[in-house]
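Exam revision sheet. Question 4 asks you to relate a sequence to its structure. Input first:
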Amino acid sequence: MAHPASPSPNNRNRATLVACVAAIGLMVGAAYAASPLYRLFCKVTGYGGTTQVATSASDSVMDRTIKIRLDANVSNGLNWKFQPEKPVISIKIGETATVFYHVENHGSAESVGVATYNVQPDLAGSYFNKLQCFCFSDLKLKPGESLDVPVVFFVDPAIVKEHDLANLDEITLSYTFFPAKAAKKPVAELTGTTKPQL
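Answer key, C-alpha cells:
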C-alpha cells in the first residue's frame, strides 16, 4: 500500500508564509478597528471621562446647581495660548450652558491644532452632554490670529440617580490642543455660535 506523499519543503514554506501574512493582516485590521471601537465604548459608557453627544437640550431643569470647572492645556509643539473665558461657572442641572474658550497663535508661522477632551470624575462623562464643541476639528491659525470657540452643553438630570455621583458638586471639563498636520475643517464652521457682546 502506497503512502501519500508528504508536502514538499516549498509547499510547507508557502503555507507558512500565507498563514503569517494572514495573521499580520488580521492584527493590522484589529489595530485599525480598536480605536473606533474603543471610542464607541467610551461614548456609550462615559468611560475615561468621555462625554455624550446630544441633539437637543434637556427637557427638565433642576433647582440644584453644580460647578463646572473649565481647564485648558496646550501640548508641546504648538505655540498657542488657550484658556477659558471663565475658569468656573455654576449652572443648574439640566440647564443648557454656553462657554467660550479663547485660543491664540503666539508662533511666527501658521499652525494647526486639534483639541481632545475629558471630564472628571470619569463617571460624570455619561451625564455630560455636549450640543456643540470644537473638539476633534482641526483648527488653523495664522501668526497672531485669535479665535473664541464655543462649547454648548448640559448635565443630564439623571446624574442625581447615580449612587456614586448623588452628592457630586463639581465637574471638570478639560481640553488639550495638540499639533495637527493640516486643517480639514475651515475655522468658519467652528464658530456658528455667536459670542454675546459685553
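Marking note for examiners. The chain is about 20% helix and 35% strand.
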